[in-house]
Amino acid sequence: MNLKPHPIVAREGWPYLIGSTLVAVAASWVLDGWSLPFWLWTLFVLQFFRDPMRVPPTDADAVICPADGRIVAVEKVRDPYLERDALKISVFMNVFNVHSNRSPVDGIIKGQWYNKGSFINADLDKASLENERNALWISTGRGDVTCVQIAGLIARRILCYVKEGDSLARGQRYGFIRFGSRVDVYLPVDAKPEVSLGDRVTASRTILARFA
Predict the structure, then answer these.
(1) 181 is catalytic
(2) CA distance 100 to 24
(3) Candidate list 28, 181, 196, 204, residue with the active-site label
(4) In this structure, are 39 and 74 located in the same domain?
(5) By residue range, what is the domain housing residue 29?
(6) pLDDT tens figures, 57-73
């Protein structure tokens, strides 16, 4: 299982953190007492790109949460990627959530789809089909799972570090979305949801659902 620790700050954030720190130091030198806004921005960058180590539950039936945030959808829908009836559970991430994306299951990536699109508010249902997005089809011994990274109103960059044929371990970090976004998980239609609308969830810890 590829769960080795990451630095306190995600690697995606180091250029931003170094840049904002240098600007804050320069502002302190030049502006003296007026540099506080620059240091507050540096603290915001630090908290946005934090990347804590997470240990997933060992329950073999569990599908774990791929992102920190709030549940905005738990519904039976049509999976647009595998063209099947499915249980969709969606997690909305605001700018104060950890933005590392982690695999919800153990499995092998059987397909990947990237779609360009809009950048509407990821809290809205139509974002699932209209926004820029990257979908992974993960084949498991319990059924197929589709995990979709979706850009949001402010998010402009979806990062995915795996490809078709790669193996994923539950809780493994596989991507990152910058500055507010959404992750949709499509499960077999008979999966049992363990979360409800409005629930606050944590990547790699919260159980979204269980395979039947």
Answers:
(1) yes
(2) 26
(3) 181
(4) no
(5) 11-48
(6) 888 899 999 999 999 99
